[in-house]
Write a structure and sequence with these properties.
Radius of gyration: 20 Å
Order of helices and strands: HHHEEHHHHHHHHHHHHH
Strand order of the largest sheet: 1-2
Structural class: mainly alpha
């Protein structure tokens, strides 16, 4: 253990040295040569933060920043290989991730609709109203190019993903409610996402509602259904799969983000900072409005936290795959690609803050390092 901590400490100091080198190189005008140093900085930082339990969970997100930096400086390696377009891997990767989600679920995960009908309904209403509305407003206020604007709306129209379940667990929220809202929002996505896109983004890009519905069914519903069936027939007999799927999902999401970054490099160079700001506003206002609307309608504190997280955290992988199916991954897919890593940072921070803030009548819980939580863990005793 001490050896590991020493290794992490060395990595942190080396990361600081790299950061200093980056600043010096930029000051001297070596902008094109600074790429490798930035990449090494992020890699070392991802290793170094593992020394501290409170921020250990950011290691994965920082690793994604390293991958994105590689894609920005060396995009050709992530566009095609020997004539094979790497973007064609996005849909199969998403289907694998959704299959993994299905293997981690059971029909019991939908029982919350009966047990907590009001909270589930509030969560779903917020999910498919607040984020689409925010996306539409931001896209118009900041006057982005049409396809970039459509991408902002698209990430708002997507359902929540498994990351929201992880953050709900860490935030001392209602994990059972989180799992149910995620499951129901995912099932509603083939209907709600295309209709909302047609209504809100139709002025920016052409939206084929029926085609998008079928694409979402193929990319989400069928793989999740196969995963549920797999879980039903082989429950407890494929522990290796339960252990492997979270890692496969993380690698898949990182690869999808890297491919989209490489494809949309030119657009990011021209509007990148503004788009990051808009995505940050979209994400954080989702938390804020989700929480306070839930308070307004009388939900308990745990449920308010859950709805806030479900609203603010979207399924960026699905949005990216939809952008690919639209033939616009380099433009419509940019906002979803940025949203994914950013929401992990804000979500982890919010969850950590909430975990240290007691529920009325309860004591605050110690901060835990982020772990991968799947719907199967809904049965864990709520902390």
């Amino acid at each position: 253990m001490k050896e590991n901590k020493k290794f992490f400490t060395i990595a942190l100091y080396a990361a600081l040295a790299c950061l200093a080198a980056v600043l010096i190189m930029l000051a001297m005008g070596y902008r094109s040569e600074v790429g490798p140093v930035i990449i090494v900085f992020f890699v070392l930082l991802a290793i170094g933060v593992r020394k501290y339990p409170a921020i250990k969970g950011f290691s994965y997100t920082i690793s994604i920043f390293a991958a994105v930096t590689v894609a920005m400086f060396y995009p050709s390696y992530f566009v095609e290989v020997n004539g094979f377009q790497l973007k064609t891997l996005i849909v199969p990767l998403l289907q694998i991730i959704m299959f993994g989600m299905g293997t981690a679920m059971s029909l019991e995960d939908f029982a919350g609709v009966v047990k907590m009908p009001k909270a589930v309904l509030v969560g779903l209403i917020c999910q498919f109203s607040i984020m689409p509305g925010l996306g539409f407003t931001l896209a118009n206020v900041f006057d982005f190019p049409p396809e970039i604007a459509a991408g902002i709306i698209l990430i708002g129209c997507a359902p929540s993903g498994l990351a929201s379940n992880v953050m709900s667990f860490l935030a001392n929220a209602n994990l059972a409610l989180s799992v149910t809202i995620t499951a129901m929002a995912t099932l509603l996505a083939p209907l709600m996402t295309p209709l909302l896109m047609k209504l809100l983004a139709g002025e920016f890009v052409q939206v084929e509602v029926w085609a998008m519905m079928w694409d979402i069914v193929k990319m989400v519903i069928i793989p999740i259904g196969a995963g549920l069936l797999f879980n039903k027939l082989l429950s407890g007999k494929a522990k290796w799969l339960d252990d492997a799927m979270p890692l496969v999902s993380m690698i898949g999401i990182a690869f999808i983000i890297t491919i989209i970054t490489a494809a949309g490099r030119e657009s990011l160079l021209s509007i990148g900072l503004t788009l990051i700001l808009v995505v940050f506003i979209h994400n954080t206002f989702g938390y804020f409005l989700g929480y306070w609307f839930s308070r307004l309608v009388g939900l308990d504190e745990r449920s308010c936290r859950t709805v806030a997280i479900e609203v603010g955290m979207q399924n960026g992988g699905l949005a990216s795959a939809i952008a690919l199916q639209m033939g616009k991954v380099a433009t419509v897919g940019l906002a979803p690609a940025i949203f994914g890593p950013l929401m992990n940072i804000t979500g982890s921070s919010l969850a950590t803050w909430w975990r240290g803030k007691p529920i009325p009548g309860e004591n605050a819980l110690p901060v835990q390092e982020p772990t991968v939580v799947t719907p199967k863990q809904e049965k864990i005793k709520q902390p």
